[in-house]
Amino acid sequence: MSTKIFVILFATTALVLLTVVMFFPQSETQADEFTEQDLARWQEEFMSVVNKGRELWVSPDLGTNGVACAQCHPNAANTHPETYPKFQQQLGKVIALRDMINWCLINPLEGKKLALDDPRMVAIEAYVTYERRGVPLEPGKH
Amino acid sequence: MTHSCLTRRDFMKGAAALGALPVSMVELTFADARENFTFAYISDAHIQYISGNKFVRNWDRGLIRAVAETNLLNPKPDFVVFGGDLAQLGMKEELDHGAEMLSKLDYKTYCVMGEHDYYLDLGKYWSKLYGPHYYSWDHKGVHFVTLNSILTYDDWTHERWPTAMQRMIEMAGLDNPNGSPFMVGEEQRKWLAKDLAKVSKDTPIVLFSHSPIQKIYKGWNFWTEDAEEVQALLQPFTTATVVYGHVHQIQYNQIGNLSFNAVMATAWPWPYPQSYAQAESFLPKLTVPMNRADPFFERDATGWQLIDVHSGRVALHYKLYNNADRTVAFNPATGRPEDRTYQAAENRISPQLHY
Question: Is the whole model's pTM more than 0.80, yes or no?
Fold first, then answer.
């Protein structure tokens, strides 16, 4: 008995929903509509992380010896983010840009590596790629 | 006026065990072979203090190696020039530690002021070690001049920053938008004009500065604000050369009668400005870049130079630790400095492409 009532209720609800969907114009139901304000806010959010990355890039406190990324890589130059992932011949395997960032943290900066999902790692990657904007992707390039 | 760094006859033990010499030696050459001579050029050591008695090992090793190898030169160079940026943040600890390493050189040593030596105390402690910030001397028929080319606007130096260390840090960041362009300044330009007035126009002039006395990329201060005015003082001479540090890479150029040659750093290499995608750079077309550095060899793309002087023209022999050596020499046939191996487009190799 209760099953029958449930089926009737379900069918009625579905019918009502279908009517509603057909009645309203399609554009109002799209989930990916966004406005200029949305774009501005998202860019602002992105740039706040880029700016955090820049702060880390010039920070003497990221490693243990006071050396900062920017000492060898002004404006993140000569980091080639567009070429990763690539076969890093010195390591004998294909790695991502973040692996190379960690290599630098451990070696020239004499520090500890960051977890790959550490917000600081995301910020550093955001800064490095932002400085390289406009350059076509060329994964694997040497 | 002549002044020299502290020198001490103290050969480094075990130096003879070192392998191939990463020497960038400068040779000045003359028509009369008796007047040819050489000197060595070491630059941009960036000795960096951590705490207690600890310094950044990587930069220490660069300077120690350059000094040890310079002492092994045979025949002996007539003198050594240190091209500036002995310290990273101008601290007494850094200058003392660097000076101790430089004091092991067996040769008379002339020092150039770098911005990393200057902006903490405006060169006071550096002067205690090395004397005046600018001076000239004569050697075997060549007139040598050293300038302090890393000065900047008075307002930036004296009014802008709450502390001396803040000022130092702001100038130390190569890509820091709060920095300020380098300049020689009016006082030194007047002094230089007076100094050069005593010298006949056919006397070869070799000028040492830390920053390039030319304009390459302002964003990283590969730049001297009053470059043209200094160049104008040198152009009347038939043979004049500027040798500069700061850029941590091979560069060379010819503007009128004036040749330009940059030297390597012992600390770390810098990218060429064209590898910064957002920048406009005026790297001289003549320059064939050095190979892209391999970070896994920490001394790669660092080194020093042996300079030979022939007819008042310089030839720089770059001895590169993990790379084929290079020679950039004045070519009398074309009237400009050229790389002896890689100048022709078909001779260039892949790592010389910077992107």
Answer: yes
